[in-house]
Structure formats: structure tokens, C-alpha cells
Amino acid sequence: MHHPICWEVNDNYQKQTFRNRTYISNDRGKHILSIPIIHVGRSNGRQKYKDVQIDNSYPWQRQHWRTLETAYRTSPFFEFYEDDIRPLYDQPYESLLDYNLKTIQTIFECLQLEMPTNKTNAFETSPEGKEDFRFLINAKFKPQLNIEPYTQVFGDRHGFTPNLSILDLLFNLGPNCITYLKHQFITTLND
Hints:
Layout: E1 21-26, E2 29-34, H1 60-72, H2 78-85, H3 96-110, E3 144-146, H4 155-158, H5 166-173, H6 177-182, E4 185-187
Antiparallel strand pairs: 1-2, 3-4
Protein name: WbqC-like protein family protein
Organism: Maribacter ulvicola
């Protein structure tokens, strides 16, 4: 049974999560792309995710785009999706939440899926009647994955590198991403 997706926006922002980082594969292997954020001091208390601001004093968008170009320019579908993905790295964003939601929306559009727009109104420790997948944002959480390798740009050098950004899958498999994902067995429950 599928439950509607509701984006958590009212929890406290935590470091070491996928909210401001992702991994790609380049000529050197697994590579992190991290969005710099403005940290509030401890005297200000905890900061809600919806209030986290991006630190644009560093040209992270230009650096990320150049890194993506270098890593994926030769992939089968980079040019096919380039015009869709590039604006994420051209337009400045102040809010990390806004940037993340725009990124997710762009990926959904590339995959020809409808993006859920529901957001939480308040934080719930244990949401009743809902499946809770918030733990998946924790970069230290290692889900049990039994996924089929697919051809990657640097697979001949490093072998198959799992647990990368959806961009890796998109640039390498293109429109076949959904079919590929439907055939994977992924255990996501935090046992």
C-alpha cells in the first residue's frame, strides 16, 4: 500500500545528513558534493530545517556544476538532461529547503513523475498511521541494498559504485531509471 509522501520541514536541522550533501563518482572514485550552509550559534538554539540558509559567499554552484560536467559529460544521457539540471546551478537560492525541493521537483520532471507537494505542519516524533523514512537522510545510515550494478562512466576504473546521487543513475540510464528502480529490492526499514 502506498502512502502519500509528506516532506518533513519542521524537524531540527542536523549535520551529517543528505540534506546538504550527495555523492557522485568521478575519475578518482566516490566524490562528495556539499552545499555550504550558514550555521547559527549554539546560543540561538536549534535551527529548524525550513530555516536553514545557504552560504552563497562561496561559489559552490559553479564548482558543483563543473564537477558534474567533468564527471558525467561522457555519460549516455548527460546532454539529454543538461538543460533541465543546469538551472539548479545557475539560479541562486537562499533557503536549503527551497533548493532541495526544486532539485527534487526537477528530478521528478526528468523521470516524468508527479512530485508530491505536502509538507509537515509540525514535527511529530512518531507519526501515526504513516511510514516514517526520515532516517534515510542520515548520511551515516547504511541501508541494506541488493541492487544490480549498472554501467557507470568510471566503472572500468573503480568497478560499480553504489549509493550515489540519483544524478548518477539519471545520466547513465536516462529514461530507463524507473524501470531499473522497480526491479531492485531495497530494504529501507531501520531494523
